[in-house]
Design brief:
Length: about 325
Amino acid sequence: MNFWFGIWRFVKWLLWLGVPICFGFWLLSLPWQFVPKPIQYGFTFSIKEARDLGLDWQQVLTSALSDLKPKTIRLSAYWDQIEPEPGNYQWQDLDWQIAEAAKYKTQVILAVGSRLPRWPECHLPKWATTKTENQRQDQVLQYIRQVVKKYQLNSIIVAWQVENEPFLSNFGECPEFSAKFLDEEIQVVRELDTRPIVVTDSGELSTWVLAAKRADIFGTTMYRDTYSNVLKSYVHYPIKPGFFRVKKRLSDIIAHPKKWIVIELQGEPWAPKPFQQVSQAERDKTMSLAKFTEMNEFARATGFDELYWWGVEWWYWERQQGRPEFWEKAANIFNNQ
């Protein structure tokens, strides 16, 4: 009896090990070659990043819209700027950005929530940091309602992004993450408007499924060279474009968003401190002109046909420093898409 029981345990072990191995071989045997598609380029613009770089943020956005001519860009409705005091809504800066995009016939993905692009990731007004979790969540929902109601008749907005990389909760200076509350935020937007919901996630540090299941449009980040505060060293992700194609296929087995996009394509350096405070040689470790060109070719080979660059403020800052190469390269990429 013990002999046959041992045989059975061995067979079960082979099945447990063999199924994923066979699945892996099947996956690799699939025709991963793809027919190149026309690429639509956009970018994320952050008024906060432009100001941190000491730039005229209006001039940065106008120049980017004029020179790059994107079809769509991503803007952020930063909570601490929209509602600096409870119930006191300040729309003028966001109004200007949206109107400027409309002037150039550029569509907008508008991000809402307390966690939005750029450090420290979560952008809570100071008054909200003293609230209890339930109170703060109620205030977030109220702010989201106000933003959606304010712009729901504006046809230049083509999608709402709810939070930014919400499942990457260990990155940034943020309150504790709640998937249940994320669902409440998404539901509030859906009740007010029918435009698609974008949910984003890390390309390298997440499985995508939890974000993609909630999305009409799923947006991944795409980075190759970063700095790790944990390892205290620069990191190059040893991945190939096929990594993203396989990950998309696997995620699509469970999650079925209508569209998959690259919402954040690395186009600026990543250093242990703000890049404007390090030398050009240090910046080149994670984003030189050669790396910028390689990043574009890498992203094109992943099979995504909608790519949003991250770093337009830095390209402009570099140009202001007498180094226009990144701005010129970006203009070439955008205008030959």
